[in-house]
Amino acid sequence: GEMPDLGKLPSKYDSADFQIIGIPLDTLSSDGSVSQSQVQTARSLAEQTGAGYTHLLPTADLLSAGLSGVSSVPTTMFFDENGNQVGETYVGSRSSEDWQSIIDGLLAAKGA
User: Minimal CA–CA distance to 75: which of 93, 58, 62?
Assistant: First the structure.
């Protein structure tokens, strides 16, 4: 439900300061392999909702970097240019205005 709102956010920020990357964890099968039918579903949902930001398929590296602990969708995390998480982990959807407030606060704390 929040994908359309997230799709609008990148245009409000300089791409040097902020980018959205989606990782659809539900593209993994129970054995950990990527399900091509679920990839197609995720691709179709991104197109339907206007979520034109970059989407990455989950990999073993991403899962070992902390995504394996994600138990609810959507879960949102923010990272700096060095790959360090900034701020908290957000579980559940938010409105565009709420995300913008959170992002503005993180950027202000960074000094962007």
Answer: 93
